[in-house]
Batch of 2 targets.
Target 1
Amino acid sequence: MSEPLGELEDLPQAYRDELKQAGVAPLWPMMRNVLPHGAPQPVTQAGYWNYDALRPLLLKAGELTPVEKAERRVLVLSDPGRGTGAMQATASIYLGMQLLLPGESAPAHRHTPSAVRIIVEGTGGYSVVDSERLPMEEGDLVLTPSGEWHDHGHDGNEPVVWLDALDLPVFVQLEGSYAVEGDLQPQRNRPDASEVEYKAAGLAPTRRPGHRARRFPMLRYPWTGTEAALRQMSAYGGDEIAELDYVNPETGEDILPTLGFTAMMFGAGQSQKPPLRSSSCAFHVIKGHGRTEVDGQVIDWGPKDTFTAPVFAAISHQAESEAFVIRIHDRPLQDKLGYYEERAR
Amino acid sequence: MSEPLGELEDLPQAYRDELKQAGVAPLWPMMRNVLPHGAPQPVTQAGYWNYDALRPLLLKAGELTPVEKAERRVLVLSDPGRGTGAMQATASIYLGMQLLLPGESAPAHRHTPSAVRIIVEGTGGYSVVDSERLPMEEGDLVLTPSGEWHDHGHDGNEPVVWLDALDLPVFVQLEGSYAVEGDLQPQRNRPDASEVEYKAAGLAPTRRPGHRARRFPMLRYPWTGTEAALRQMSAYGGDEIAELDYVNPETGEDILPTLGFTAMMFGAGQSQKPPLRSSSCAFHVIKGHGRTEVDGQVIDWGPKDTFTAPVFAAISHQAESEAFVIRIHDRPLQDKLGYYEERAR
Amino acid sequence: MSEPLGELEDLPQAYRDELKQAGVAPLWPMMRNVLPHGAPQPVTQAGYWNYDALRPLLLKAGELTPVEKAERRVLVLSDPGRGTGAMQATASIYLGMQLLLPGESAPAHRHTPSAVRIIVEGTGGYSVVDSERLPMEEGDLVLTPSGEWHDHGHDGNEPVVWLDALDLPVFVQLEGSYAVEGDLQPQRNRPDASEVEYKAAGLAPTRRPGHRARRFPMLRYPWTGTEAALRQMSAYGGDEIAELDYVNPETGEDILPTLGFTAMMFGAGQSQKPPLRSSSCAFHVIKGHGRTEVDGQVIDWGPKDTFTAPVFAAISHQAESEAFVIRIHDRPLQDKLGYYEERAR
Amino acid sequence: MSEPLGELEDLPQAYRDELKQAGVAPLWPMMRNVLPHGAPQPVTQAGYWNYDALRPLLLKAGELTPVEKAERRVLVLSDPGRGTGAMQATASIYLGMQLLLPGESAPAHRHTPSAVRIIVEGTGGYSVVDSERLPMEEGDLVLTPSGEWHDHGHDGNEPVVWLDALDLPVFVQLEGSYAVEGDLQPQRNRPDASEVEYKAAGLAPTRRPGHRARRFPMLRYPWTGTEAALRQMSAYGGDEIAELDYVNPETGEDILPTLGFTAMMFGAGQSQKPPLRSSSCAFHVIKGHGRTEVDGQVIDWGPKDTFTAPVFAAISHQAESEAFVIRIHDRPLQDKLGYYEERAR
Ligand SMILES: [Fe+2]
Ligand SMILES: [Fe+2]
Ligand SMILES: [Fe+2]
Ligand SMILES: [Fe+2]
């Protein structure tokens, strides 16, 4: 167990040439790289994006690049461990800040990766998913799941900004990522399902034989409902902060196949020290101020800021004021693969 | 196929005696009884119970029988097909009207059958299920599922009445019905889960590894939420009446293993002619007036009335005024057995 | 808790008349009947049917009643607790001994209840289920599940006898039992799925998108495979007898929605004292001799005999010789209803 | 839709510097890379490894590197698209040829990725998984699933070689891959579950309440059973080749969370032109000779050879002689992510 493994240099050059010729490579010199002892050794590093710094850059992108030349006008939040330009924030999570200006529209497409948008600022923006019109209000979660047509529009007067969270890195790595483009969709003239079919917990449209529920029946999770629910949890939660998972109301499953979303509420001064988790994650602040340590790195955060943590990071949150934060994570994927894990600190 | 089958009388008496001696009986004379052609031949008949008629009888039961001598002071709604005294309203559904007077309590027990209570009148009543205190307000559904301790109490000043719906007939027939008695339970000092954990559709307490959701996480479905959701459905439902199934918010499954509950809203003058269903069912009127035909029998109903229909009944509803009705049915059981069926009329 | 409940006679006759008039009945005088203390009080009693006694009666039925006058020429094993004539052996299990003579056929039908046939004697019999021809050899289990067309035929020279096990009582009680008749089916010219698609454990026809597995993909469980598997289990099972559940090879679920089947092998002299189970059950002896006590009643059994036990029966088996027995039980139904239970003795 | 998107060079250098400073990158210049039109653009290329060429290299590794210096003495089959040295054969599949010499043992460890070994040559090798001893015979599949302790040993006299198939690339990309080392395990003195508990299709150890089946109950799939089953399928399969999926006998699910295994049998001269699949795959030849085209590249294969194909490859097989091939693919993972797809050619 303790003896060091052989290295590539231990092998005769002629043999190494033969291996190369045959298209094979010895495992043992690479063994500890691909299977490190005891825990993964992530490349990913904690990242922090201050919204006040990001906003002018995003507005400038609006001046420099018309939406027609961008399709989606997004600044991608690059994992510091991989360097700026990386199309991912952690091993599995892509984050991007998207701008839509009044009167603009982002054309319809559908793709294998799934997205959730968290609305950051502005009113009048909307998404259309399979012809369902989804208003985008601050703090709302709006889903555009794998394979569903979606476009975006803007009826308001001020810039609309949202944070895109996608499982794009997983699909890119699996060589499964692609998109199909189409025309803007017609919009059904009625409110979205969160306002009609799924207006109350524990109620669902009556089941008819053969008519299966849509795979993603609820595409918008209005912030007003989430905040009210968190406040109620918090009132009866004792010392623990309030935490609610966003779920599919027809199945109780996570809202996307790979990514999970958890709404958190901190009372002023409240702190949380979660266990070490095998999931990587991102945090987006809806309201409030606080400080978070990620593997010793201190992050002071305020409204609309975003920050990330790699797998098994030691995370400690401390809220200054009452604060609402959404945690994005890949536990659903890890559950499906059977290896999600929490370790005591 | 068309030849009539042999009858018992076709067999020699000596042979019939031998069969009896051996503890066996020929199937063929009974074949069409147990396997009728094309559709079941239910014993169950449509029933109707006017609340105004029932109420004084129930109050008199309160005078005649102290709760200590009754445990549960209930008048059972007997299927007319089986005759008064039958402990069932349809083949699978038991219905009883229960009275609790101010200051009374019904002692704790738990049993294999499951119950849902629909609150008919009165305020101040409550149920305690596994130490969770569940207020009972008009129109609320309150669950006491299989195996969970439950008792009832009353802090108010007027009689409290509720309709009990149980799958008791199934358990009695399966020789699986029994109860265990216990003491009144302590009550946790906080609102029930419908007020805390399941306050909004699409949100659930954050999942922790190893901590599984309770099998019946939501034990109370407040009427206020149901009515609001129905109104919203109705506003966008076009010609169809609004219908919502009560579901487990953690799984989307029906709220009981055998019985399903569906809340219906009729606009004034709206009608519904559902397909013929293999499920038997009961209807309880929360508010409003209307007329329903069940296999040709006309039932004029008003607030707090209850009526039933056997399997494959031809049912036509016609609301006079805006009306809210809860349908109780055994589709969940039939789904599990794999034979639930709807037929066009 | 200990005070006796009120009785019907405690109520004034006038009030009782009013209740009857209103179609309602007080619960409390019936309370302990429908919800007895601590455990069910089954009507079902243990039964025992000696095959040597049954066989001549069955053959005489063959002489007295042509198959055209019987459709299915069956002697039903009536629960002694309900008396001869009862179309059930326990609360949930129907058992019948069926005879098919050379050259006869039993016409096609399909029905809501499901059946498993255990072949008792004879060769040349076969069932056709949805056009799949299923040979019937001694000890085989042959399924005719809910809703699937089935007929029976006989190409051999000696009488064929099998034991039918159905969930008929459940469907009759639920008023869900009915049949549809049809013509004899064409037979696909190839062996059944147990000889082709499901020839080895852990292998299944390759999955194609959209092509779902049949709900009941394996309709015949050949005895030769079962005996070989039991012998292997027994060789490595230590003191415990070998017990294998019959399962759906595509899902691992029980082979019928309500009934489960377990093959048991006893070494000579081996005994078993299972826990008290909430399921009722029947035992059919494939080979061997032994003695079983059911709630104190002693049953000495030999090849092809059948015996039963009610819910929560105290059962003790003692094999004289090496013995193979099939246990039929309703645990699958009780699992679905959520109340299956085992108690230590 | 058709207008070309803006490029990085279209943006002023000062702005690009600011973006870099802020840790963000514009999406649109990268948009078509991460979301190509219509289908993925895989880096992976078809690979082919002739066993006759590989074998001497593997034996030489045995001479050059003692197992103590290698832990696992494996030559990794590197995707030609990524170049020799790549620790993966496709986007999701790792393949390695492993050598164990007589008397050697590979020490115990467990890790998050899962493996299946397909035995290529030699007798006397065995794996121990959670103390269950699994003999390794030619053509057998032996599982060492995620999280289960495993070591390997060799009681024979000739080299033993097997092909390792792992989902390692997925775990590496997710930063979830790690291992824990331990001592050689004790071995239970009885045959593995394929010889005892899962000896026949449609039978499983009797279910006891609370005792859940192991997540991976069957760890060895003996080739003899697979070949016999394929021959039977083939005899009744008509023009289609015989294809059987390896499944968990307790659930019918694929044998690993991410990877699927399908055994294929070609009659002499038989061909197959499967649809374009979104899964990537590898083929390992158990017996026989044939020719396969992958995206126009011709591969002539014989016994023990291995070859691969990227996602959506156009694959055409033509067997010269009767041939048995195992297909390894990532459909289970794609099913879980909800995007597995087949396209007509
Ligand atoms: Fe998109
Ligand atoms: Fe009760
Ligand atoms: Fe039948
Ligand atoms: Fe390993």
Target 2
Amino acid sequence: MTKKPTIALDAMGGDHGPDVTVPAALDSLERNPDLSVILVGDESELKKRLPADGRFAGRLSIHHASERVEMDDSPAKVLRNKKDSSMRVALNLVRDGVADACVSAGNTGALMALARFVLKTLPGIDRPAIISAVPSRHGHTHMLDLGANVDCTAENLYQFAVMGYELVRALENLDRPRVGLLNIGEEEIKGNEQVKQAYKLLEDSYLNFIGYVEGDDIYLEEVDIVVADGFVGNISLKTSEGLAKMIGEALKQSFGRNLFTKLAGLAAMPVLSAFKKRFDPRQYNGASFVGLRGIVVKSHGNADRVALANAIRMAVIEVEKGVPMLIGQRIESIFADSQGDESKRKSA
Amino acid sequence: MTKKPTIALDAMGGDHGPDVTVPAALDSLERNPDLSVILVGDESELKKRLPADGRFAGRLSIHHASERVEMDDSPAKVLRNKKDSSMRVALNLVRDGVADACVSAGNTGALMALARFVLKTLPGIDRPAIISAVPSRHGHTHMLDLGANVDCTAENLYQFAVMGYELVRALENLDRPRVGLLNIGEEEIKGNEQVKQAYKLLEDSYLNFIGYVEGDDIYLEEVDIVVADGFVGNISLKTSEGLAKMIGEALKQSFGRNLFTKLAGLAAMPVLSAFKKRFDPRQYNGASFVGLRGIVVKSHGNADRVALANAIRMAVIEVEKGVPMLIGQRIESIFADSQGDESKRKSA
């Protein structure tokens, strides 16, 4: 029997706050009869959005928090002040075992800073990382780190790979997901020092390491997890978001130009809709923070109820599979004794 | 009167060699009556592809070279051996003033290594960089470095910005192109040390610096030049190539699924063609090597005649505008006396 999951939802987070978080919670409860949700935030604001018929009564509750983290609040400020923010209180509930996971569409920097402070990292983990999936030619590709760690050592990159591997095994039910290390192919001596050293660590590890991958491989190659430092990973992801947005806009414009193109668009509509659906970013909403003693899933700030419900669904799977425990065990078995113990690495 | 340009074309370079290089040269000569082209490579192979009617006689010549650089040759090996490769001989012609620019679709690493060795960097330039344009919401964006320099100091990034600025002014006839520094927005203390220091240098410079840009801004923001180190720039560009390719394939597949979708595709064809044309990568073929004492334009290895002709056209503009001289003068005026001289930087 898998655990019945309870999600602490930062109900004030994101661009739309309770207007999106509450409907997304209700949708999620509707779909998953095992789920419980704790809405964390301003009680009066939340109460008036709850269903009048009292359905989900036993599975939906409100936990009051008097403050909210704004999108432009600095993480340091949030950490020092705003001790009763919905974001922080949601994390407290996870720490205290009241909830199994926290989902927030709030400020990423603040969420990461609070999560590290409140939940702490797993033993042996130097730095938590952010991982998310993008659609790819063969299905989708998970990428980490997406911005939590700007400068990374080879050992950090190795830990990211391990964390990504354990998460993706759980999320995707894959036995041996393929891990690639993001690099460039143009230079004689490829990559920087950290990447070259990380290559060696990964090559000697228990992971299903397929070697270096380049930027285009994220979308074209059969790779399940792409590992990079947070600077590179973030820029690669954001580049993709920008390009996809521009192409989407241009496609729309092309069909909207005049009567003729509008008619053509009408004819092509069903095909274009299916195409759009395949790449719908809402499907991919939800970036997991890995390496913490608890489950935290970050939703896009501008997520709608469909997108946010996907982030909640992701958190639920992580609860059911016990992802932090899987990562913790693995990291312990690899790094516990000695960071240089090759035989351990291989047999871990 | 602008200079009549002579291009040394590495006629053996690229995936298709003379089958593409010769037709592209002929197209270019057809279009530009001021242009001369020297085809560098195997004389017998090239000769048989020349027009039988002897047109372009005074403007088209063959310069024999007995070797060719393969796509997987290591730059070090090419540098040591293959002294009579078409790539190297084409660069020699530029060095010796016989040609004004070299265009090659060959191995990027080898071309950069040879170009540095044969042509040398401009005085004051630490490292040459690779710059190219991508389509964007508002037109297009030039990005550098795209892979020549993996680890970069703040000063390197500053020099890239100056080189990109002078090139883009010339290529685009822009008075004050906007320069952005690629960074991430998620972290409390944004970016790594080099980026933060480069920010200060750029802020105090004569450049039209608009500050940090994120990955999505490459496509969505009004920025003309995006500066990054070669690792990040390459991965961002390759990520874009992979995503664009995947989307193109998926769109094609969507319309090819069955009779109905094919009919829809037929109706949408003119619109989709116009859309495709706008983002045709062949338009954007041609990456300039900047910071050298000569003009070198790298074409995609798999370029067809249309794409390669675009790379030649780019080289021609750089010749006409005297881009290396513009960059050299600027770098000299900024960096000649002291690298820390703020007043010079501002008034340069």
